[in-house]
Design brief:
Largest sheet: none
Structural class: mainly alpha
Number of strands: 0
Radius of gyration: 30 Å
Number of helices: 7
Length: 172
């Protein structure tokens, strides 16, 4: 038997019936709200994995079907977040697995954030021009970099004050 904690105003009949539909989600059992949120997070994670696979294998932006499915998730996420915000500590039972569900939700959200960031980087890379993708900041070959560093003052034991260093104007 599940117990649902109901706000005092609702029990006492102080709330009008027009507000009862919005308060129904407040009176929802916290475990149910968190479990629903976790299921939604798992759906989002699966969708992001699909997008990640698409970006890595096809090397192009996702098709409209995938984008539409992501957009359909947004209202569900908003509703889930609103339900989570309505939860109050006094609604939680110390005897159920709510804490584990919250922990699982946090873990899944971290996975979602990481995967979303990776997808964003992949998409950015795929949509950049080919010149930008192949641009190398270092035009000097790696072999020459070591030689350049050895020629700098203080980087070689063989250097002394009598080396022929180029003089700057006005140093005479």
């Amino acid at each position: 038997m599940a117990f649902i904690l109901v706000p005092k105003q609702l029990r006492m009949g102080l709330i009008r019936s027009s507000k009862c539909s919005t308060l129904r989600s407040i009176a929802m059992e916290p475990r149910t709200v968190i479990k629903d949120h976790l299921l939604l997070c798992e759906q989002v994670h699966a969708l992001l994995l699909e997008e990640n696979t698409w970006l890595k294998t096809k090397k192009e932006a996702p098709d409209m079907d995938l984008i539409e499915r992501k957009q359909q998730m947004l209202p569900k996420l908003d509703e889930s977040l609103a339900n989570l915000k309505k939860l109050k500590p006094e609604y939680f039972s110390p005897f159920d697995d709510s804490k584990k569900l919250v922990s699982d939700s946090h873990s899944k959200l971290l996975q979602i954030f990481y995967l979303d960031r990776e997808n964003e980087d992949l998409l950015l890379k795929l949509t950049q021009s080919t010149e930008r993708q192949t641009f190398s900041r270092f035009t000097t070959p790696p072999e020459e970099l070591g030689e350049i560093h050895n020629r700098l003052p203080g980087n070689s034991d063989e250097q002394d004050d009598s080396t022929d260093a180029p003089s700057l104007p006005g140093d005479e």
